[in-house]
Amino acid sequence: MIITLPVLKTGLLNIIMNQPFFKFFRTFDDILLYIWDDTGIGSINGHPIKASWNSNNPPTMRDIKFWEQLYHEPGNFGIYAAHDPFVELYIIVYYPIVDSNFNGITKCYGDNAMEDVLDISNKLGVRLELELTPSK
Q1: What is the Cβ-side half-sphere exposure of residue 103, based on CA atoms within 13 angstroms?
Q2: What does the pLDDT look like over 60-115, one tens digit per residue?
Q3: How far apart are CA 131 and CA 12, in angstroms?
Q4: Cα torsion at 20, 67, 95, 112 (round to 10°)?
Q5: How far apart are CA 98 and CA 116, in angstroms?
């Protein structure tokens, strides 16, 4: 799977995953509901439009309408990127302990968010590959 995300103001970052050509988008409620599903289903059909984050304050979990699923291991954990609004925010969701109060989630935000996600995913045994491409 190739996911295009902003990397500061220098370019775009593509996360290349082992699920080519498919992107799955979920609301947080979908993430909670489909913990055991491995097909990426949810209440979103198609590719939702994204808006950029227009605040100097960090977004809260409730600010994000749609999450892009980057990695999903049913019943174990998932890695998601904020899609709407589009901001450098990632979450690692530990399914056995996640709840509607956002317990069981590691949040990575800001300039080092991608490096933090890569570090955590490596510790979990998931290898994400990165490819920098110029922004348009």
Answers
A1: 4
A2: 989 999 998 888 888 899 999 999 998 889 999 999 899 989 999 999 998 889 89
A3: 9
A4: 90
A5: 20
